[in-house]
Amino acid sequence: MPVGVLAIQGDFEKHLDALARVGMEGVEVRSPEHLSKVERLILPGGESTTVGLLLQRYGLGEAIQDAAKRGMPMWGTCMGMILMARSIQGRENQYRLNLLDIEVARNAFGAQVHSFEDEVEIADLEEPVLGVFIRAPVVTQCGEGVRPLGQFQGKVVAVRQGALMGTSFHPELTDDTRLHSYFLEIEPTPVDSHG
Ligand code: GLN
């Protein structure tokens, strides 16, 4: 089965290109029907408020939560990680999927620094990746089951929890496909639901 990329808004085409570069078929996911035809899901960068509202309105958010509980591997980059978080600092009312047991802070590198690039060490990769940060979030709290995979300036910018992962930055905007390959190797892992 192909890999789905949530294609409501944002840089989903860049993920489809990256998947093509590693020889994997990627398909756009806009509905529960599309989601049922993929074996894993990437949630791209974009605008988390807008996409959250649409996920809620069309029932796709619930379908994603069900698929994650059944064990579907999912990876959120930037906006995607915000949507996957349990909690968004200072934004109790913003819709999120509550999949990763993390709290995130949006736009955490300050209003002036819209965008920058720097090396980020990733625990499971031998060489650092080039982190492209665009109005990027950071992880401000990690629950017990969450493993920080990468830090930058003392802040957690990549996490893994079972079959779920999140990165603050955008590997799909670089030529480096190691994190895409890493994600494609994650085994499906059903989540125990504690409600
Ligand atoms: N700042 C955006 C948000 O909060 C995320 C930015 C991105 O995905 N590059 O939704």
Write structural notes for this entry.
The chain has 195 residues and is of the alpha/beta class. Helix content is 24%, strand content 32%. It has six helices and twelve strands. It has helices spanning 12-21, 32-35, 48-57, 60-69, 79-84, 178-184, and strands at residues 3-6, 26-29, 40-43, 74-77, 85-88, 100-105, 115-122, 129-134, 138-142, 147-152, 155-161, 164-167. The strands form two sheets. The protein has a nine-stranded mixed sheet with strand order 2-1-3-4-12-11-10-7-8. Strands 5-6-9 form a three-stranded mixed sheet. It binds glutamine (GLN).
Strand content: 25-35%
Describe the sheet with the most strands.
9 strands, mixed
- State the low-pLDDT regions, or none: none
Computed over alpha carbons, the radius of gyration is 15 Å
The distinct bound ligands, ions and cofactors come out as:
glutamine
User: Helical proportion?
Assistant: 10-25%
Span between termini: 29 Å
- Adjacency order of strands in the biggest sheet: 2-1-3-4-12-11-10-7-8
Number of helices: 6
| DSSP strand count | 12
Write a brief structural summary.
The protein has helices spanning 12-21, 32-35, 48-57, 60-69, 79-84, 178-184; strands at residues 3-6, 26-29, 40-43, 74-77, 85-88, 100-105, 115-122, 129-134, 138-142, 147-152, 155-161, 164-167. With 195 residues, the chain is α/β, with parallel strands linked by helices. Glutamine binds next to helix 5.
Topology at a glance:
Elements: E1 3-6, H1 12-21, E2 26-29, H2 32-35, E3 40-43, H3 48-57, H4 60-69, E4 74-77, H5 79-84, E5 85-88, E6 100-105, E7 115-122, E8 129-134, E9 138-142, E10 147-152, E11 155-161, E12 164-167, H6 178-184
Parallel strand pairs: 1-2, 1-3, 3-4, 4-12, 5-6
Antiparallel strand pairs: 6-9, 7-8, 7-10, 10-11, 11-12
The structure holds glutamine.
Residues 45-48, 78-79, 82, 106-107, 134-135 line the site of glutamine.
